[in-house]
Design brief:
Helix content: under 10%
Shape: elongated
CATH architecture of one domain: Beta Barrel
Largest sheet: 8 strands, antiparallel
CATH class of one domain: Mainly Beta
CATH topology of one domain: Elongation Factor Tu (Ef-tu), domain 3
Strand content: 35-45%
Distance between the termini: 8 Å
Order of helices and strands: EHEEEEEEEEEEEEEEEEEEEEEEEEE
Length: 299
């Protein structure tokens, strides 16, 4: 199920139990999946490859080479990294209080970054480490059990990939990584900011899925997980693996097809289901994901 990878989750658990210092602040890249990972380790998925594809750096640090006085909004660098773009969040790692919370990048030149807020206090030092990220401060969880909405973070800047020189296929989701290639998977999620909804499935041909007030339309793509205590049905035809297409939706019910084949069941099941977005990327397209389109859940 999407969320933190085992690598990230184990590091966080070791930290909150006093067994490990927080790992060093990583540089972060975003990559795209045509098949989502099948384990929390981030393995079993298919990342786009070939056709000019490369992960895009979306977070990292740069060191200033001149001071920025209080009441001034321009940061100075010997050479501004090319991956820094407008909309990124700006934080001073060396002296956190001198750049106000929520400050973002307004514009970039070869040696400067103009911020949305002025430096404060003693100002930014001449050798301060500045963190830039497309991810703003995560939102807190909302609600009380059993209806808690988990903490999330959504990109605040546009993420633009290289132009595809061949088809990249149909993209289902994205991951964050600590390296341009290989490295550790940090987190991953589907495209589309939709909630997981509790569902049951009857024994029938096709099996009928019941989800209260789901709001789905015919042909909507959905995915299923039984990770949190659910039991998948048994199948007499096809299964619930991968993207499914909604068929014959009513207010609280629908059936699904998998690759065009109806999913028939021979025993009932219960699970969670959510709608996703599928993005085809043919040759010649420059894939770009607007702000607020890439959401990671603390699952």
């Amino acid at each position: 199920m999407p969320g933190l990878s085992d690598y990230s989750a184990q590091n966080i658990l070791a930290y909150v139990t006093g067994g490990l210092a927080v790992p060093a602040l990583p540089s972060v890249w975003v990559g795209l999946y045509t098949a989502m990972p099948t384990s929390d380790a981030g393995t079993g998925g298919t990342e786009v490859s070939g056709g000019g594809y490369a992960r895009v750096q979306v977070a990292g640090t740069a060191t200033t080479n001149a001071t920025t006085a209080a009441a001034n909004a321009t940061l100075h660098f010997a050479s501004t990294p090319a991956w820094i773009v407008a909309g990124m969040t700006v934080r001073d790692v060396t002296a956190p209080s001198v750049i106000p919370a929520g400050t973002t990048v307004l514009s970039v030149t070869g040696t400067t970054v103009v911020m949305s807020a002025n430096a404060t206090g003693a100002g930014v030092g001449g050798t301060d480490s500045i963190c830039f990220s497309i991810w703003p401060t995560p939102t807190a969880s909302v609600g009380t059990e059993p209806a808690v909405v988990p903490a999330t973070v959504t990109n605040g800047a546009v993420v633009t990939f290289a132009t595809a020189s061949a088809s990249w296929g149909t993209v289902l989701g994205f991951g964050t990584f600590d390296s341009l290639a290989g490295g550790n998977t940090l987190a991953f999620d589907y495209l589309g900011n939709f909630n997981w909804l509790p569902a049951t499935m009857s024994t029938a041909s096709p099996g009928v899925i019941t989800v209260h007030a789901h709001g789905y339309s015919a042909a909507d793509p959905v995915v299923v997980t039984a990770k949190y205590g659910g039991v998948l049905p048994t199948f007499s035809q096809s299964n619930l693996t991968g993207p499914l297409a909604v068929v014959g939706p009513a207010t609280d019910t629908f059936t699904v097809t998998n690759g065009g084949t109806a999913v028939n069941t021979s025993a009932t099941g219960d699970f969670a289901v959510r709608k996703i977005v599928q993005q085809q990327i043919p040759s010649g397209i420059t894939p770009s994901f607007a702000a607020s389109s890439l959401t990671l859940n603390m699952a």
